[in-house]
Every structure is written in C-alpha cells, then in structure tokens.
Design a protein that fits this description.
By secondary structure, the chain is an alpha+beta fold. The protein has 2 domains: 357 residues, DD-peptidase/beta-lactamase superfamily (Beta-lactamase); 104 residues, no CATH class. The protein contains 12 helices and 19 strands. It has an 8-stranded antiparallel beta barrel with strand order 12-13-14-15-16-17-18-19. A hairpin with a 6-residue loop joins β5 and β6. α1 runs antiparallel to α11 and α5 packs across α6. The radius of gyration is 21 Å and the shape is globular.
Amino acid sequence: MNDNALHTVQVRIREQAAAYCESNSVPGFVAGVYHAGEQIVLAHGTANTATGAPMLDDTGFLFGSVTKVLTTTLVLRQVDRGLLDLDTPVTTYLPEFALTVPGAADKILVRHLISHTNGIDADLFFPDAKGRDALKTYVAGLAGSCGALFEPGEQLSYSNGGMIVAGRLLEVVTGAPFHDLLEREIYAPVGMKNSSTSAEQAILRSTAVGHFLDPETMAAKPTGMFMLPDTWGPAGGTAIGTVADLLAFGRTHLAGGVSPTGTRVLSPTSTALMQQVSHDMATPNVPPMGLGWVRYPFGDTTVLAMSGASPGGVSILCVVPEHDLVFTAFGNTPGAMMLHDQILQWLLREHLGVQILPVVTEVQQDIDLTPYVGTYRSNQLRIDVTIVGGRLEERTTYEPADGSQEQIFSEFAGGMTSAPPQRYVPIRPGLFAPAGYPLEMFDGYLRLLLVSYHDVSDGRARFRNGGGRLTRRA
C-alpha cells in the first residue's frame, strides 16, 4: 500500500463529497479511510449552519446506531470475563425484564439481544428519562408498553430495544452505569481520545449538529433536538466522537480485538464471533446478521457495517477484513446516506477491485399480489398495503402512544411523522422494489429500501420487512 494510492482516494472522496453536498443541500461531511497501515481523514463544509462553524477533520458527531457495535463489544467483553453467558436467559441476570406478553421475555437469551433476533416490539418506544437510572426506566417501561413480534430466534428484526436491554444488563453485571462502561472499557483501551457520552461533554469541543431540509425552501436548517433521550444510549442515542476515533474502533475489529494502542479489547474468539453469521433471512434486502455487525455481501467480499441516524445526521462504519480496510463517515442531513453508499461502492470497486454483483438481476412478471395485502403493525406503527394499478401501495401511519412519544419522534424525524403513499413493483414473489428507482441503486447499502414479505401460509404473508424492521399482520 503506497501513500499515493490513499492520496488518490482522498482527492476522489473530497471531490465526490463537495459535488454531492452542493447539489443535495448537505451542509457538512467528514470521512476517513484506513487501509493497510495508512489512514486519511477529510472534512467538507459546515458543522452547524446556525453558527457557521466549519466541519473539521476532528469535528465530533453523534454515532447514532453505530453505537450498537460498541454496545455489542461491551457485552462480549463481559463474556470474555465470565460475567455473562450468551446462551443464558436475560431474566437470569435481569429478573425485572418483562414484556406485555406473559412469559415472552423469559425465552429471550443474551445472544438474541445483540443479534436482533429477540422479537421485542419496541422500535419506536422513547421513554424520556435522563441520568444514571435511564436504562432502568426503559426496562421498567417495556413491561407495561411493549409486546413481542415473534418467538426469539425465529426471525430477524433490527432491534433498538434489544440493544437497550443489553445496556441495562451490562450495568447490572458490572455495577457501573452504561456511559461509564463505554468510556472505561471502549474509549480508553481503543484510544478514542475525542469521544464522549453527553452533550455537556461534547459542547467543550467542536461538534456537528444535524439538519433537516425545509420543505418549502429546501434549505438545510439545524435540528431542534441535538440527541435522543439517555434511555436510548446503548442503541445509539448519546455516543459522540470523531472519524479518527471510529477508525481506531474499526481497526480493533480488523486486528482480532487488539486496538491501535496495542491494548487487547476483545478476545480473538469473541471478535470472530461478532463477525460470523448468527441469523440469515435469505432475502437480499436483509443482509445476514452477525453479533452487532450487519454482514453486507458485495460479490464474494463481506463488508461488516452499521449505519446510524441521529436527529438530522447520518453516520456509517464499515470494516472489510479481507482487504484490511475501514471506512467511516458522517453527514449532517439524512440525505448524506446516499453519499456514504456511493463512496463505499467506489472504494470497493475502484480502490480494492471488488466485483460488485447486481442484487436484483431480473424482474418476474405476473406475480400474485394478494398474499401481501393487509394491515401490518409494530410498536406505534401501522402499514396498510393495498393493490393499486398492478402494484402494491403502502401507507405508513405513526400512531403515538402519548404526547411525549409523539414529541420525541417528531423532533427526531424533523417534524415529518407521516409519509406519502409509496408504490412498489414486484421483483419476485415476496420481494418488492420502490417504483421509479433503477435496479442498480439497490446494489449497495440502499438494498435496505427493498421490501420483503415472509411466512406466507393460507395465501397470506405474516410479516413485512422494510429497512430490516419487521411489522406483523394485524
């Protein structure tokens, strides 16, 4: 690996970021690449349009759900120490853990929490609590508010609730608050010198804020809510850091659990376990899941990845073990996720020479759409599916449990709590693509935009999966 090759990468990403940000009203962007012993970081634009503060190489940002890989690493550290066992029921450690379905929580193993196979129906459950007891408050709230979508291990559904319960589990077995654990057992040994766990810490240094596009002017306006409540810490609500810090964390997972500082953070066995397939839905829109990591297949190459949304911002962390590469980035509008995907695909194709095969190769005709028609539900969400003009049409309705939930979700979504109806064209039985998109758009990270239906019996699908999240037929 020569310096010139990574310099070329830096120039290319800088040009690509500048062009994309300009044409899509993204105020600021920061990215980093580590490859075979060399590392680059680059920044573009503005971190906060209210202040005009520039986006710098060391500007901090909310990790969002990238935090889930940090939380999973913390769980595996306790497994290495013998404090936790992956195949023990969660209630053995956390007797107060319960759901509205009697006995459902008792079947959930520690492993199910971090492999997104737990079935906890809490995707939009946002209890507003701060401080040391926030996660305790979250778990107590589950018992009265949230049920189960499926039997543990039966399906895969991206689970904020599972990660938050895992965070509370960590507090109980270690005796330390989650944020203290994150600082002591991840940030310190990995060498994440500029990472923090609160807005109070982040304000002491350069930190980006998220933005949403004004629907009338299409200008980017700063978010009215910097971060989610403390109850969402382990799922991605509160961790903040820099590109260099996330590169160091990614490199730790490249190096079998040894950080760039030379400290062993995780055993080789646990590091490898996180990267192995734990569940596979066998559909292109839901990549196989490891523990914490999502395993995106790009041809014969596996990219371990996790993306993260924060109010008005999006982050991504990708680790490519076969090529000794880490890529991470943050953009301060939701639309920057498309730029993350473009850069990732360019790195794979042009820099690494990976052949990216089409995810969708052909579209079948004359598919019976009736098994998919109906109403599907999950926590505070309803999706009504009908047939319109030979296509499926989905109408998504947010049904807040109370005013507090509505306020938090509304601010997190930039005020947009409803979406216009979306039409879907059939690709094959049980798999659909949003109408009007070229099929090659789904070759990368955006394969998550495809929608699949599962468990068809008696002529009706039982589950719908969109964005990795399940809703169940009502």
